[in-house]
C-alpha cells in the first residue's frame, strides 16, 4: 500500500508531469510513495534546471563555487525552498526576480546521520531562481580524492563522484530524490594539467585554460549527476561509443569493451531506442568501490573488469541496460530499488544472450542465482523482500543481491509464464510509457496487472506476484536455470575428487571464466589443503590475473586458513577497492580470530586508498568483529 502523500491538486500534477516528468498516475494508479530519504519540499516546489559553476581544488580536496536552481512552484503559497545537503559549507544564498539578484536568508539544520542537513532558503514571491554559494568538504561521502600514487599514471591526482544513492547532496545542495528529474549545465575549472569530465554532453578535447562546459539536455534524477577529473584522455571506439581514461588504460579498455556498440544495437532491437545520444565509458582507478555506475552518457567503470578476454563485460551490458531501466524509468524511492536493479539485471542478461549467445547467458544467470542463494542465508529476513522497508536506514543498505538477482528472477518467472514474445512486448511498452518518469512498486503492480496479468488471464495470479514482491526469501517455483556446461564441470570435479580423474586431465583448457567460477564456488567445504595445493600447482590460481577467479580462489583459501596465499591476498586487497571483491575477503578473515593480526595489518595499509563508502563498510565489519 502506498503511503499517504500530501494533497496535490490535479493542476499541480499536470504541472509536475509536464515540467518534471514525474509519472502522471492513470485513472487507476495511486499517488507515488513519499521518499523518506529527502528533506526537500519537492511536492510544493521543484527545480527544473540546475547550473553548476565549480572549481576543482585538489589541494583542499574541495569543489568550490555555486549552484543555480531554476524553480517552479507547484503550491503558489510556498515561501521556502528546502534542499538536501550533507557536510557542505554554505556561504551565501541569493534569489533572482527576473531583473536582479539579491541576498536571501538561509538556515542549515543539525546533521542527521542518514539524511544530512536540511537547507531552508527564504523565498520571496517574486523569486524565479535561487543561487547557493558553497563548498564541499574533504570528507564528502560522494567524492573520492586520489593522490597521484593511487592512479595508474602516478603523476596526476584524480577525483570522482558517486552520487547514488543519496550522496549528490554531499557535493551539491539539491532536491535529492529519485522522484525528481532535472536538466543541467555546468562550468568546471581545474588546473590546466587536469581534465574534468561530467556525465553530460561535452567536448572531448583538452583546452589550455582548464575551463570546461557541460550540458545534460535530458532530465535525469539527481543520483545520476556525476563528475570526475584527472589525467583523462579519449579514444573513440565506434559511432556512439568511446573510452575516457588515464592513458594507461586507453588501449586495453578499447579492446575489452569493443562490443559496446553491438550491445546498444541489440538492446534497441529488444526495448526501443537508446535515448541518450552517445554511450561512453570512463575507466576509473582501481579504488572505485563499485563495478560500474550507470551515469548517463558516461558510465563509470572499474578497471578490475579489464581481463584481456572480454570475460567480464556483462558489467558493461549491465550499465548500458540502465539506459532503459533506472535512468529512463526510475525508482521513485529507494524502497523501489528492485525496479531499477532487477530490471537492469534481467536486461543485462538478455543483452549478453543477444551478443554472446545463450550458453554464456545461462551460465551468468546460474552463477548469479547461486550467489544470491548463499547471500540470503546471512541477510535479515526483511531484507530479502523486494519492496524492502528502509525508512530510517541508509539506502545504501538496500544494495544487496536481492533487488538485483531476486528482481531478475521475478522477471525471468514472468517471461517463462507469459512467453518471451508477450513479455518482450510488455517490457518495451513499459519503457515507452514511463520514459523519463519515476515509478514506485504499487504503481508498477497496477501497470503489470493491466498490461500482463489481466491481458493474458490464468497464467499468473496476483498472489504469486505478491509473494515475489512483498514476501521474504524466494518463492518455491522460482526459476532454476541449469547450464549444461556447468553440469560437465560438476562431473569433472566429482571425478577428480573421487580420484577417478587426475588433476592434469581436468579439461579446463576449454573452460571460460564462468566455468572456472562454477568449479571454484562449488568445491566442497571440507576439501583438504593438499587438494587445493594440487589445483594451485596445476592451474596457478593464486597468480590468476582474472580478478573474479583470484577473488573466488583467495576466499576458499582464507576459509581453509591457508596462509601460503597471504602475500597475494595482501597485494589483492591493497590494490583493489571494489567492494564486491574485497568485502567478502575481510568478512572471512575477521570470522577467524587467528587471522585478526594479519587482517588488521592489511587494512591499515589498504584503507587510505579505499573510497569512503568501502571504508565505511569495512570499518563496520571490524567494529562488529570486536564486539563479538
Ligand atoms: Zn545496476
Largest sheet: 7 strands, mixed
Mean pLDDT across the residues is 94
Radius of gyration equals 25 Å
Q: What is the number of strand segments?
A: 21
Can you give a write-up of this model?
This protein is α+β, with helices and mostly antiparallel strands and 628 residues long. It is 37% helix and 19% strand. It is built from 18 helices and 21 strands. Strands 5-4-8-2-1-11-13 form a seven-stranded mixed sheet. Strand 6 and strand 7 (117-122) form a beta hairpin. Helix 5 packs across helix 7 (401-418) and helix 16 (579-590) packs parallel to helix 18. The longest helix has 21 residues, at 358-378. It is globular. Mean pLDDT is 94; it is low at 1-27. The protein binds zinc ion.
Q: What's the arrangement of secondary structure elements?
A:
Elements: H1 10-20, E1 45-57, E2 62-73, E3 80-85, E4 88-96, E5 101-104, E6 106-108, E7 117-122, E8 129-136, E9 143-146, E10 158-161, E11 182-189, E12 195-198, E13 211-220, E14 227-230, E15 233-236, E16 241-245, H2 247-256, H3 260-271, E17 279-283, E18 292-293, E19 298-301, H4 314-321, E20 329-331, H5 337-356, H6 358-378, H7 401-418, H8 420-433, E21 437-439, H9 441-453, H10 462-470, H11 484-497, H12 513-521, H13 529-539, H14 547-559, H15 566-575, H16 579-590, H17 596-606, H18 612-627
Amino acid at each position: 500500500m502506498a503511503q499517504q502523500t500530501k494533497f496535490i491538486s490535479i493542476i499541480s500534477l499536470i504541472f509536475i508531469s509536464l515540467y518534471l516528468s514525474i509519472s502522471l498516475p492513470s485513472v487507476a494508479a495511486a499517488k507515488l510513495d513519499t521518499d523518506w530519504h529527502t528533506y526537500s519540499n519537492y511536492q510544493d516546489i521543484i527545480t527544473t534546471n540546475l547550473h553548476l559553476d565549480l572549481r576543482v581544488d585538489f589541494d583542499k580536496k574541495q569543489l568550490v563555487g555555486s549552484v543555480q536552481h531554476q524553480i517552479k512552484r507547484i503550491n503558489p503559497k510556498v515561501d521556502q525552498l528546502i534542499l538536501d545537503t550533507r557536510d557542505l559549507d554554505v556561504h551565501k544564498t541569493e534569489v533572482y526576480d527576473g531583473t536582479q539578484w539579491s541576498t536571501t536568508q538561509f538556515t542549515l539544520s543539525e546533521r542527521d546521520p542518514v539524511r544530512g542537513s536540511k537547507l531552508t532558503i527564504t523565498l520571496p514571491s517574486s523569486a524565479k531562481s535561487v543561487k547557493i554559494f558553497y563548498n564541499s568538504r574533504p570528507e564528502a561521502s560522494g567524492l573520492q580524492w586520489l593522490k597521484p600514487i593511487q592512479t595508474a599514471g602516478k603523476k596526476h591526482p584524480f577525483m570522482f563522484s558517486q552520487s547514488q544513492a543519496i550522496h549528490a547532496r554531499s557535493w551539491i545542495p539539491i532536491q535529492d530524490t529519485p522522484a525528481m528529474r532535472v536538466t543541467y549545465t555546468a562550468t568546471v575549472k581545474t588546473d590546466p594539467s587536469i581534465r574534468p569530465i561530467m556525465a553530460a554532453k561535452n567536448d572531448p578535447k583538452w583546452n589550455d585554460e582548464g575551463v570546461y562546459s557541460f550540458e545534460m539536455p535530458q532530465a535525469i534524477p539527481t543520483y545520476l549527476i556525476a563528475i570526475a577529473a584527472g589525467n583523462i584522455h579519449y579514444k573513440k571506439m565506434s559511432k556512439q561509443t568511446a573510452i575516457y581514461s588515464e592513458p594507461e588504460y586507453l588501449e586495453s579498455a578499447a579492446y575489452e569493451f569493443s562490443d559496446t556498440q553491438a550491445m546498444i544495437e541489440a538492446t534497441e532491437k529488444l526495448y526501443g531506442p537508446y535515448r541518450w545520444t552517445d554511450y561512453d565509458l570512463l575507466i576509473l582507478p582501481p579504488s572505485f568501490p563499485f563495478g560500474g555506475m550507470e551515469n548517463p552518457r558516461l558510465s563509470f567503470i572499474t578497471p578490475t573488469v579489464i581481463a584481456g578476454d572480454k570475460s567480464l563485460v556483462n558489467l558493461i551490458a549491465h550499465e548500458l541496460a540502465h539506459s532503459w531501466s533506472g535512468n529512463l524509468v526510475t525508482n521513485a524511492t529507494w524502497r523501489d530499488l528492485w525496479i531499477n536493479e532487477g530490471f537492469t539485471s534481467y536486461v543485462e542478461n538478455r543483452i549478453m544472450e543477444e551478443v554472446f549467445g545463450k550458453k554464456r547467458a545461462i551460465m551468468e544467470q546460474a552463477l548469479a542465482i547461486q550467489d544470491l542463494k548463499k547471500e540470503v542465508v546471512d541477510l535479515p529476513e526483511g531484507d530479502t523482500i523486494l519492496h524492502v522497508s528502509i525508512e530510517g536506514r541508509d539506502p545504501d543498505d538496500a544494495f544487496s543481491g536481492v533487488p538485483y538477482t531476486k528482481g531478475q528472477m521475478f522477471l525471468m518467472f514472468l517471461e517463462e509464464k507469459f512467453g518471451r514474445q508477450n513479455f518482450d512486448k510488455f517490457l518495451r511498452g513499459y519503457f515507452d510509457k514511463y520514459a523519463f518518469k519515476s515509478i514506485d512498486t504499487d504503481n508498477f503492480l497496477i501497470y503489470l496487472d493491466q498490461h500482463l496479468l489481466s491481458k493474458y488471464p490464468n497464467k499468473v495470479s496476483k498472489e504469486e506476484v505478491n509473494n515475489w514482491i512483498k514476501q521474504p526469501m524466494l518463492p518455491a517455483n522460482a526459476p532454476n536455470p541449469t547450464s549444461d556446461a556447468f553440469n560437465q564441470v560438476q562431473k569433472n570435479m566429482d571425478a577428480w575428487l573421487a580420484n577417478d580423474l587426475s588433476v592434469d586431465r581436468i579439461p579446463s583448457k576449454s573452460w571460460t571464466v564462468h566455468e572456472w567460477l562454477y568449479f571454484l564456488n562449488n568445491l566442497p567445504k571440507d576439501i583438504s589443503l593438499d587438494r587445493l595445493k594440487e589445483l594451485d600447482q596445476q592451474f596457478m590460481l593464486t597468480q590468476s590475473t582474472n580478478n573474479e577467479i583470484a577473488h573466488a580462489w583467495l576466499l576458499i583459501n582464507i576459509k581453509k586458513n591457508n596462509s601460503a596465499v597471504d602475500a597475494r591476498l595482501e597485494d589483492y586487497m591493497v590494490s583493489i577497492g571494489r567492494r564486491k571483491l574485497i568485502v567478502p575477503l575481510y568478512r572471512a578473515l575477521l570470522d577467524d580470530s587467528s587471522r585478526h593480526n594479519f587482517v588488521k595489518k592489511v587494512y591499515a595499509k589498504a584503507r587510505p586508498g579505499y573510497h569512503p563508502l568501502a571504508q565505511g563498510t569495512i570499518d563496520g565489519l571490524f567494529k562488529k568483529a570486536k564486539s563479538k
